[in-house]
Amino acid sequence: MGNDLKLRRWQESDCRRIYDWRVDPDVMRWCIDQRMFPYDDHKRWFFGFLADSNRYGFILEDAGEAVAQIRFDPAELPGCYRISLAAAPGKTGKGYGSSILRLACQSEEIRDCATLLVAETLTDNLPSQKIFVRNGFFNAGHGRSHGANFICWLLPLAVVHQPVLLQFLAEPTWLEDIERMLSATGLALAGDATARVKIFMGTAVSDEELYSSVLLHLNIGESALLDLALRFPADLKLPVEFYNPLLAVAQIAASLLYLQQN
């Protein structure tokens, strides 16, 4: 890896390049979704992506050569974005993945739109896991999609002067992991009955609590389903499914912070 690294936004001319990288066997083996698709489908998706002001794609160049790509797509809740990145074929193991992740997360575009970043790596993709650990991401447990098992990673971007205070009505088995995640990310604090936001997890919502300031219900099963949101400061299309409770709580806290600041 040279010293002449440059981060730039995706351009129309990158369409074929990104497709060729995606379908390369050495790149595809680490993709959670390993379905093949024709170039025409990719082309429609790519130009739709460029036209969407809520999505961000970047290329890393080393001395003018494209060596890695990263994209940011809106996640389940406002202010949360999901990352997908890959080094170019033949460029793995050279530090380009870590460099593009660091530079993109520091970019003004991403800092302005995101409070929390979410990423997933296959459970046996140790090189990618090291990249996220090296860049300060928190391990938020496991999930499953497209028949593959993966690890979830979280990175808060907001400077939190006053974390959100959350009251949890949940089984104790969930609370230890949730409190550990909140402590590590600084997104929120677990509070008592005076908390402005109450989250029911796997329990019924009582009539007495229906009049609290913000009330949310997570139906916990194989996944975490947000199926009730009263007085949440944004319009949500319910239900919203998350693959584990840690991701659900992190996005709720980050979204509340984002909506307060915007």
What can you tell me about this protein's structure?
By secondary structure, the protein is α/β, with parallel strands linked by helices. It has two domains: 152 residues, 3-Layer(aba) Sandwich (Aminopeptidase), CATH 3.40.630.30; 98 residues. The chain is 32% helix and 32% strand. The chain is built from eight helices and 13 strands. A seven-stranded mixed sheet has the order 1-2-3-4-5-7-6, with helices on both faces. A hairpin with a 5-residue loop joins strand 3 and strand 4. Helix 7 packs across helix 8. It is elongated. 34% of the residues are buried.
What's a quick, concise take on this entry?
The protein is α/β, with parallel strands linked by helices and 262 residues long.
* End-to-end Cα distance: 38 Å
- C-alpha Rg (nearest Å): 19 Å
CATH class of the largest domain: Alpha Beta
CATH fold-level name of the largest domain:
Aminopeptidase
Along the chain, the helix and strand elements come as EHHHEEEHHEHEEEHEEEEEH
The neighbouring-strand order within the major sheet is 1-2-3-4-5-7-6
Q: How much β-strand is present in the residues?
A: 25-35%
SS-based structural class? Answer: alpha/beta
Tell me how many strands there are.
13
Helix content: 25-40%
What is the H level of CATH, i.e. the homologous superfamily of the largest domain? Gcn5-related N-acetyltransferase (GNAT)
Uncertain segments: none
Q: What would CATH call the architecture of the largest domain?
A: 3-Layer(aba) Sandwich
Largest sheet: 7 strands, mixed
**C-alpha geometry:** elongated
Mean pLDDT: 92
Count every helix, treating DSSP H or I runs of 4 or more residues as helices. 8
